[in-house]
Amino acid sequence: MILPWHLYLMALLYIGAGINHFRKPGMYIKIIPPIFQNPKLINILSGAAEIILGILLTIPATTLFAAWGIIALLIAVFPANLYMFQNKKAGFGLPRWILFVRLPLQIVLIYWAYQYIF
């Protein structure tokens, strides 16, 4: 079975983002809210999850599982996006409007993953 090109695009984006967790961990650790303990472990787990789920998206037998996993991951990392918006230091000096736009972008990404469930 050949999967649609946009699913491969999604997979590539998650794999790339996951790899980036290991290339530039400080960037991701900085946006993890202080309420969470062991941000280094959280960074490793979320990066590994993005890579694994991205790969699983491209395997027809696991696409459904991977899509649900990505939805769960996007919900799990939402506090980091909210923290970036609320904390100037975590926001990397980006304009607040960009940080605000990132919040509903999560809904778009969830919807995109949801398309592969049916």
From TrEMBL:
Keyword list, A-Z: Membrane, Transmembrane, Transmembrane helix
Keyword presence, Transmembrane helix: yes
Transmembrane segments: 6-22, 42-59, 65-85, 97-114
Signal peptide start-end: none
Protein name: Putative membrane protein
Lineage of the organism: Bacteria, Pseudomonadati, Bacteroidota, Flavobacteriia, Flavobacteriales
